[in-house]
Design a protein that fits this description.
- The complex is a heterodimer of chains A (about 130) and B (about 350).
- Chain A is of the alpha+beta class and about 130 residues long.
- Chain A is built from four helices and nine strands; from the N terminus they run E-E-E-H-E-E-E-E-E-H-H-E-H.
- Chain A has one domain: OB fold (Dihydrolipoamide Acetyltransferase, E2P) (Beta Barrel), CATH 2.40.50.100.
- In chain A, about 20% of the residues lie in helices and about 35% in strands.
- A six-stranded antiparallel beta sheet of chain A has the order 1-2-3-9-8-5. In chain A, strands 4-6-7 form a three-stranded antiparallel beta sheet.
- The longest helix of chain A is centred in the C-terminal third of the chain and has 10 residues.
- With about 350 residues, chain B is an alpha+beta fold.
- Chain B has three domains: about 120 residues, Gyrase A, domain 2, CATH 3.30.1360; about 100 residues, 2-Layer Sandwich (Alpha-Beta Plaits), CATH 3.30.70; about 80 residues, Aminomethyltransferase beta-barrel domains (Elongation Factor Tu (Ef-tu), domain 3, Beta Barrel).
- In chain B, about 20% of the residues lie in helices and about 35% in strands.
- The chains are: A alpha+beta (about 130), B alpha+beta (about 350).
Chain lengths: ~130, ~350
């Protein structure tokens, strides 16, 4: 069952429709409700390798629906600590719970100050409203 | 900027909250509830598709049969009045200009239902025909319960005209693009909204082009523009069964030689063994290219069609698909991926 539209106010957002939940020197990353809705039913998640590096503003994985492929843009730089195995096995989790069980990776931040440049929920809502 | 055309059902699609996308110059619904859900509705119950974007070419009068018999690949004499046939329009090189259904209304009276993107190319190749596309709206009602819910009976590849379907005068044909039982209904454009509403009132799910594509791919019906093109021949595409090579039609001599010598590549069906979904245009490492791919909603595995060197085109052969730089294994299988259970 697809989730209702929402944008939690405790997250930081990248304008490419990705979110980060920053906790000290680590962050959990995922795609926003808007991104999963635009994509439709997600049927495949191509994750990065654990231990690999991700860079702010660059692609670290792919999510695919029946019809389309979308690159996932990292809001922050760091090293991949963990890939969400549940989403690899059940990609539709992204549609069902984009900010909870549908998280994509957890990273150790290499540039924690980058988070300051991300959007807060009000600024991100403005991005969504322009689409 | 190109103006997109809209079918007589555009307002209905918009009101249902369909996701509308450009397709072959038309603004068409790609999905309503979701591709997988619509796909399952057609496999298990019944769904309706607006296919009014498809083109219709008419040719009637003395010599119509001779004219088309000399230009279409299949043998028109294998069908009589009230019967329909899958056939190909080929070019001088034997390439596939279009695939279409020919409806024979009489000895010298035919209606050709063609792909939306190819109406103009078809009309150029068949200048004697009349483009009557604007006179027709077309709905495909497909699924194991489709005919029962409509209260209709029609045998596969037959059709009847002037049939009252839920209060609307229709051409009823036992054809479709999903691998399920069902029918296609042709009616006047002004009657299409009433017919659509009456069909939905029978509990038949509205379905978009997304599900239409996954349904046809599971049963290995080729999509023109992807799996078959003017650069590919029916011999490579596995469509020799739709070519009467013992008669003359455009490109027939080329196709006879190609059949004797054997094509360099063949269109095969494959199932991914590694993670990932094959997509149109991805290279096949051993040679060739993916022409269609999706995650199969019925089977839960990633499937594709593609051209491979003829020597590799045997079931069980392993090939490698280049998924955006990542080599992923796939296994060639016998067509189709999915076959409906006979009632």
């Amino acid at each position: 069952m697809a989730a209702e539209e929402s944008y939690p106010d405790d997250l930081r957002y990248h304008p490419e429709h990705d979110w980060a939940r920053v906790e000290r020197d680590t962050a959990t990353l995922g795609i926003t409700w808007y991104a999963q809705d635009a994509l439709g039913e997600v049927v495949h998640y191509e994750p990065p390798e654990e231990g690999s590096s991700v860079a702010q503003g660059e692609s670290y994985g792919e999510v695919e629906s029946v019809k389309a492929v979308s690159e996932v843009i990292s809001p922050l730089s760091g090293e991949v600590l963990e890939v969400n195995a549940k989403v690899v096995a059940e990609p539709e989790t992204i549609n069902e719970d984009p900010y909870g069980e549908g998280w994509l990776v957890r990273i150790r931040l290499s540039e924690p100050a980058e988070a300051d440049a991300l959007l807060d929920v009000e600024a991100y809502r403005a991005v969504v409203a322009e689409q | 900027m190109q103006t997109l055309r809209r079918t007589p059902l555009y307002e209905r699609h918009a009101a249902l909250g369909a996701r509308l996308v450009p397709f072959a110059g038309w603004e068409m619904p790609v999905q309503y509830a979701g591709i997988a859900e619509e796909h399952r509705a057609v496999r298990t119950r019944a769904g309706v598709f607006d296919v009014s974007h498809m083109g219709e070419l008419r040719l009637a009068g003395e010599g119509a049969r001779d004219y088309l018999q000399a230009r279409l690949s299949n043998d028109l004499d294998r069908i009589g009045a009230g019967e329909a046939q899958y056939t190909l329009l080929t070019n001088d090189e034997g390439g596939i200009v279009d695939d279409l259904i020919a409806y024979r209304r009489g000895d010298d009276d035919f209606l050709l239902v063609v792909n939306a993107a190819n109406v103009e190319a078809d009309h150029r190749a068949l200048p004697e025909t009349e483009d009557v596309s604007d006179a027709w709206a077309y709905l495909a009602v497909q699924g194991p319960e489709a005919l029962e819910r409509l209260g209709l009976e029609v045998e596969p590849f037959t059709f009847r005209e002037n049939v009252d379907v839920l209060g609307v005068r229709c051409l009823v044909a036992g054809t479709g693009y999903t691998g399920e039982r069902g029918c296609e209904l042709g009616c006047a454009p002004e009657d299409a909204p009433a017919l659509w509403d009456a069909i939905l009132a029978r509990g038949i799910e509205p379905c978009g082009l997304g599900a239409r594509d996954t349904l046809r791919l599971e049963v290995c019906y080729p999509l023109h523009g992807n799996d078959i093109t003017p650069e590919r021949t029916p011999i490579e595409a596995g469509l020799a069964w739709a070519c009467a090579l013992d008669k003359d039609f455009t490109g027939a001599a080329v196709l006879r030689r190609l059949r004797a010598s054997g094509p360099a590549e063949k269109l095969v069906a494959f199932v991914m063994q590694d993670p990932g979904i094959p997509r149109t245009g991805m290279p096949i490492t051993e040679g060739g290219v993916v022409t269609s791919g999706t995650l199969s909603p019925s089977l839960g595995v990633a499937i594709g069609l593609g051209y491979v060197p003829a020597a590799l085109a045997e079931p069980e052969t392993e090939i490698t698909v280049d998924l955006r730089g990542r080599p992923r294994r796939a296994r060639i299988v016998r067509k189709p991926f999915y076959k409906r259970e006979e009632a």
